[in-house]
């Protein structure tokens, strides 16, 4: 049986990525806002407040989470480019998904994602091969993460959560 927690599979980092692989990831990041808007278009309040799986986040929370997470990714990108191997700030995403604004209209977050991704993609498309090798350090795992893997991870992340929404819609026949 398919694990609906990971509808597109788990992310797997690579030691290297070709320019075409990186370009494809950037294109996935660029296309996410429109796909996310389309996925939630026409959903009722009740549907928006439906968890994508038992014990999981609601559609509304998923959309707000993507905005929060991708804001952090953009900032992490800037840290990688402006500091020497920065140790990033982690955050408790489960608690962030419960703050009061996550009950608001998810269009607030899709609007933010659209603007954020426009700016982020402009930056990502300008990166040199040397910049793509720059790294950050995650404070909890102590792992070094190269920028090219950060890009790939967030391309995956957006589609991962989009699949939570579209999978729910399909299962519920919405």
What does this molecule look like?
The protein is mainly alpha-helical and 174 residues long. 59% of the residues lie in helices and 3% in strands. It contains seven helices and two strands; from the N terminus they run H-H-H-H-H-H-E-E-H. It is globular and about 45 Å long. The mean pLDDT is 97.
CATH class: Mainly Alpha
Q: How many distinct beta strands?
A: 2
* C-alpha end-to-end distance: 22 Å
Total separate domains: 1
Low-confidence stretches: none
Can you describe this structure in just a few lines?
By secondary structure, this protein is mostly helical. The protein has helices spanning 19-40, 45-48, 59-82, 93-96, 107-125, 129-132, 147-172; strands spanning 135-137, 144-146.
Keywords:
59% helix; two-stranded antiparallel sheet; mainly alpha; 174 residues; single chain; Four Helix Bundle (Hemerythrin (Met), subunit A)
What is the secondary structure topology, with strand pairs?
Layout lengths: L18 H22 L4 H4 L10 H24 L10 H4 L10 H19 L3 H4 L2 E3 L6 E3 H26 L2
Antiparallel strand pairs: 1-2
Helix pairs in contact: 1-5, 1-7, 3-5, 3-7
């Amino acid at each position: 049986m398919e694990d609906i927690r990971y509808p597109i599979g788990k992310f797997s980092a690579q030691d290297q990525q070709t320019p075409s692989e990186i370009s494809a990831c950037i294109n996935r990041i660029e296309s996410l806002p429109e796909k996310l808007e389309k996925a939630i278009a026409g959903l009722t309040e009740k549907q928006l407040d439906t968890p994508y799986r038992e014990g999981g986040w609601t559609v509304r929370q998923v959309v707000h989470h993507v905005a929060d997470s991708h804001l952090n990714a953009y900032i992490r990108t800037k840290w990688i480019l402006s500091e020497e191997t920065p140790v990033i700030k982690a955050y408790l995403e489960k608690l962030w998904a419960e703050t009061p604004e996550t009950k608001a209209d998810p269009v607030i977050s899709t609007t933010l994602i659209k603007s954020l991704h426009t700016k982020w993609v402009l930056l990502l498309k300008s990166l040199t091969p040397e910049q793509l090798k720059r790294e950050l350090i995650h404070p909890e795992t102590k792992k070094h993460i190269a920028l090219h893997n950060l890009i790939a991870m967030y391309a995956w992340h957006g589609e991962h959560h989009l699949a939570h929404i579209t999978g729910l819609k399909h299962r519920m026949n919405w």
